[in-house]
Design brief:
It is built from six helices and seven strands. With 212 residues, it is an alpha/beta fold.
Length: 212
């Protein structure tokens, strides 16, 4: 009974933390106002999922357009649950926010992006690159650099092991590529980026980088 009671309390705490601490079902705020300060440009959302990061950019930077890219494979349903197709869910969320005219949806692999070099002014990736394995992460970062214009900015948010993660389970634990801020910064430099800013939020590392 004690074990059952302890597990029940932990589960209840995890629910509260995920909902109100991490706000997993709410609006995703831009972690830094230094991303795309011009307020305009074409942005790629790598691993857009259900569109939280796409909405984050479109609402914080009203003069931008966003290409929301995701693989929309079996892993999508494993992460977000069964129901409508990934494209349908994403489009539905964009329409609900009234920003569908400034976004397009494309299926693709972030490890081999279907775009020409120097296509985008900005790239964002939130809680997506850390789904990849050790070999896939540098491939995705190199692709982000390739499709950015010189001077373009890359905003990355990934799950990190901290106090908050002790209270979570389920989809967050699918992020196998957890690393320290210094390790992520090193990976970005190896991909040719300059680090502009980095910081933390609950269970999250964010890094703003620039392509020289």
């Amino acid at each position: 009974m004690l074990l059952i009671g302890a597990f029940t309390l932990w589960s209840f705490a995890a629910c509260l933390v995920a909902r109100f601490g991490l706000n997993v079902n709410g609006r995703l705020p831009l972690p830094t106002q230094n991303f795309l300060t011009s307020g305009t440009g074409r942005v790629l959302d790598m691993g857009a999922g259900t569109g939280r990061s796409t909405l984050m950019v479109l609402e914080a930077r009203p003069q931008t357009t966003v290409v929301a890219l995701d693989l929309f494979a079996d892993s999508y349903e494993a992460h977000f649950g069964p129901g409508k197709s990934g494209q349908e869910r994403l489009l539905s969320n964009l329409k609900a926010a009234g920003v569908e005219n400034r976004a397009s949806i494309q299926a693709g692999d972030m490890r081999k992006l279907p775009f020409e070099p120097a296509t985008f002014d900005g790239v964002v990736s939130t809680y997506a690159i850390d789904h990849l394995n050790r070999a896939g992460i540098p491939m995705a970062l190199s692709e982000a650099s390739r499709v950015l214009k010189p001077g373009g900015e890359f905003l990355m948010m990934v799950i990190t092991k901290d106090f908050w993660l002790k209270f979570t389970f389920g989809p967050l634990l699918l992020h196998s590529g957890m690393a320290s801020p210094d390790q992520w910064a090193s990976r970005l430099r190896e991909a040719g980026f300059q680090i502009v800013e980095q910081g933390t939020r609950p269970a999250t590392i964010y890094i703003l980088a620039r392509k020289p």
